[in-house]
Design a protein that fits this description.
Layout: E1 2-4, H1 22-33, H2 39-48, E2 52-54, H3 56-67, H4 75-90
Antiparallel strand pairs: 1-2
Length: 96
């Protein structure tokens, strides 16, 4: 399992302005469209800004939702989220 804190996803628009509360959009997306009912509690945590632990399969489902047709997020937002997830997954296991 890896710990993700989606409040840390940094996104700027073309004008250089911060796009805020990305974690709420991620939480909503996961809550509405997750096929795994266990993910609804994780979605609530993401939405309120808590760090969450995701198993590899859960992270894969979130990625699929992000890039799939159900996602209404802009491409630059999706890229920032996926880049963040890649950085978390690239870290060595936090438990040693």
């Amino acid at each position: 399992m890896k710990t993700y804190d989606f409040k840390l996803v940094a996104v700027k628009d073309l004008d250089g302005k911060d796009v805020t509360e990305i974690h709420k959009a991620i939480g909503n997306l996961l809550f509405k469209f997750a096929e795994n009912l266990d993910l609804t509690e994780i979605a609530r945590g993401i939405y309120i800004g808590e760090p969450v632990e995701l198993r590899p399969g859960e992270a894969k489902e979130l990625r699929s939702l992000l890039i799939g047709p159900k996602s209404n997020l802009f491409a630059f937002v999706k890229k920032a989220i996926i880049d963040y997830m890649d950085s978390v997954e690239a870290k060595k296991d936090e438990r040693g």
